[in-house]
Amino acid sequence: MINTTYVLECSINGKAVAVPVPASKRMSDILRDDLLLTGTKVSCEIGRCGACMVLLDGKPVNSCLLMAYQAAGKEVTTIEGISAGEELHPVQQAMLEEGGLQCGYCTAGMIVTLTALWEKNPTPTRAEAEEALCGNICRCTGYEGIFRAVERCGLSIKREG
């Protein structure tokens, strides 16, 4: 029998990790089951809902579609790595203040996606936010609170700048 387990070496939330994993294991499962980073949610498991979104070298990807070996040598950022310790990231703070969450199941994926957008463009238009979130589905909020959060982030940057 061929040994299909290998050691995944990458950085997760700024920390180097070396995790023995089967070659066929998805990143979402490694994060949740092996590393106990349960903020990453799994819902559709086919890359359509965005609940499992993580940043891979700064770009949003569905971790349910990301095989472990694809993360080798890369930086993976989960929702747990978005904040700076106890201080919320501006996107997290805005989502909280604007009611951009309801049941919370999609929230981590939304925040991860919007953080990538915000890092690239701290004052996105609504159209840019809509495009960024096209891979994220929310079944509860109707998105208005989410878009208000995007606007709040942009306004706070304009005030500070």
UniProtKB/TrEMBL annotation:
InterPro entries, per the entry: 2Fe-2S-bd, 2Fe-2S-bd_dom_sf, 2Fe-2S_ferredoxin-like_sf, 2Fe-2S_ferredoxin-type, 2Fe2S_fd_BS, Beta-grasp_dom_sf, Diverse_Oxidoreductases
Cell division in keyword set: no
UniProt keyword annotations, A-Z: 2Fe-2S, Iron, Iron-sulfur, Metal-binding, Oxidoreductase
Key word Transmembrane present: no
Domain 2Fe-2S ferredoxin-type: 6-82
Domain of life: Bacteria
Coiled coil location: none
Classification via PANTHER family: OXIDOREDUCTASE WITH IRON-SULFUR SUBUNIT (PTHR44379:SF5)
Protein name: 2Fe-2S iron-sulfur cluster binding domain-containing protein
Organism: Paenibacillus germinis
